[in-house]
Write a structure and sequence with these properties.
Elements (H helix, E strand, L loop, with lengths): L1 E6 L8 H18 L10 H15 L7 H13 L3 H10 L10 H14 L10 H15 L2 E7 L3 H10 L10 E4 L4 H15 L8 E7 L2 H10 L3 E4 L19 E2 L6 H7 L5 H6 L1
Bound molecules: magnesium ion.
Length: 275
């Protein structure tokens, strides 16, 4: 069966979590240098809890990160909960109380942003797997590979450059789009165009591979795809909170993907011989 294989990028193809962890540590070290805390690494859990609340409040993963520095300062000076600190930083209700921290917030934000400039390392096997799928795609027009990411465009492009994604043409198409059922259906239509097929004439296997049940698996399930969940350190092994967050399959490494695709009926027999 011809196949459209769509990949998430952050924490699926590359280890975004490792880069964010370094940036978060750098942010805590900046606050520590001002005497607000000791032992920066011991506060990563608090920072991540605040980050989760701020992501929910902003409705996106990459918000203005000076809010993160402000929320941490609120938490360390008021000894309040992560949720309260995030909420206060979000509404900036008490901003005037923290005016004297503005230079520190600015410095912490810049430190964090600079650390985020480090390109994320690719996961083991990612390059080999993507190249082997491309080899199959080029030789037999049997597989269309698409990268679909909703991350910050500048950061994503920096990762593409670092790993020469575009020069190597690791994917038939790269889509930087918010993920929902409609954009998933659009991504599938792009795959069909690459394969020069229409759904009416040929059965096509469409697979989405991602690390987030809410941001990847749920919209892909809603679009009717076969979904492959690859848990990552960012959120650990998530438990579905709704029926449509349940993945069709679970893998723990991209190296498991070719075998799974073959079992699903994808035409990837030629991949092994072409390496
Ligand atoms: Mg992801």
């Amino acid at each position: 069966m011809r196949s459209v294989i769509i990949f998430d990028a952050d924490n699926t193809i590359w280890d975004t979590d490792a880069v964010f962890r370094s940036a978060q540590l750098a942010l805590l070290q900046t606050l520590a240098s001002d005497g607000l805390l000791d032992n920066p690494a011991s506060h990563l859990t608090l920072l991540r809890a605040i980050d989760c609340h701020l992501m929910a409040l902003h409705g996106k993963a990459e918000y203005g990160f000076d809010a993160l520095a402000l929320a941490l300062i609120i938490a360390f000076t008021r000894h309040c909960s992560a949720e309260e600190a995030a909420s206060e930083a979000f509404t900036e209700a008490q901003t005037q109380d923290f005016e004297r921290y503005r230079p520190l917030i600015h410095m912490a934000h810049n430190t964090f942003a600079d650390a985020l400039h480090q390109p994320p390392p690719l996961f083991a096997d990612a390059l080999a797997i993507l190249l082997s799928l491309r080899a199959a795609s080029i030789s037999a027009s049997s597989i269309a590979t698409i990268l679909m990411t909703e991350g910050d465009t500048t950061r994503i492009e920096r990762a593409f450059s670092a790993h020469r994604f575009r020069e190597r043409t690791l994917f038939d198409e790269i889509l930087i789009l918010e993920k929902n059922a409609d954009t998933m259906a659009y991504a599938r239509s792009v795959g069909y165009r690459i394969l020069c097929v229409s759904e009416e004439t040929t059965p096509i296997l469409t697979v989405f591979v991602g690390d987030s049940l809410k941001r990847d698996i749920q919209p892909a399930n809603r679009a009717g795809f076969v979904t492959v969940y690859k848990p990552a350190a960012f959120k650990g092994f998530e438990i579905p909170q709704a029926d449509d967050e349940t993945p069709t399959h679970v893998i723990h490494s991209l190296a498991e993907l070719p075998h799974l695709l073959a079992r699903l009926g994808a035409e990837i027999q030629t991949v092994a011989s072409q390496g």
